[in-house]
Amino acid sequence: MCKQISWFLFSVLLLIGCDTSTLVHSYQSMKDSCWDRTDTVRFVLPTFIADSNCCVLVGLRITNCYPYELLIMEVEQNYQNPIAHRIDTIFYQLTDQRGDYTEKGIYYFQYETQWVPLNARKGQMGEIKIRHLMHREVLPGIMDVGIHVVH
Q: How many C-alpha atoms does 86 have within 13 Å on its Cβ side?
């Protein structure tokens, strides 16, 4: 009886934990927790099995060493079969007017930016490239940059 209840609970938790709307959720670490202007973060997307209207959320993991209130990024999408190209610019406010981080944490903060549309055709494959557009060559305090592609 105990075994059956355990398997039932395990099955329920497994089903609840599955998120069918997430296509890709991946992060890449920045060397020495710094993002150099010449560093382009690349994410390869799987081949789409059907036409999809999705969105891309850009994820950031930063420390309190990040010196600015704002982060400006370029999100470039490139696809093949058929060829498609799109570039978006994201202005992301990381602190409020008082300079306090908008996410909770003491040293480490995690953000997901506003969504960027992604319209893919069946059979398309591609990549997403992200780079920062700040004036400073090297941005300290950026630990990881990632994407979350959802339906």
A: 15
What's the residue count for the chain?
A: 151
Q: What is the pTM of this model?
A: 0.80
Q: In the chain, where are the structural domains located?
A: 21-150
Q: What is the pLDDT of residues 42-92, one digit of tens each?
A: 999 988 888 888 889 999 999 989 999 999 999 999 998 888 899 999 998
Q: Could you give phi then psi for residue 74, rounded to 5 degrees?
A: -110, 130
- Residue 46: asked if its preceding bond is cis (omega within 30°), the reply is no
- CATH code of domain 21-150: 2.60.120
> Is cis: bond before 140, omega within 30 of 0?
no
131, amino acid identity: R
Quick one: tokens of 55? 């969105």
Q: Which bin fits 5, alpha (ψ -120 to 50), beta or left (φ > 0)?
A: alpha
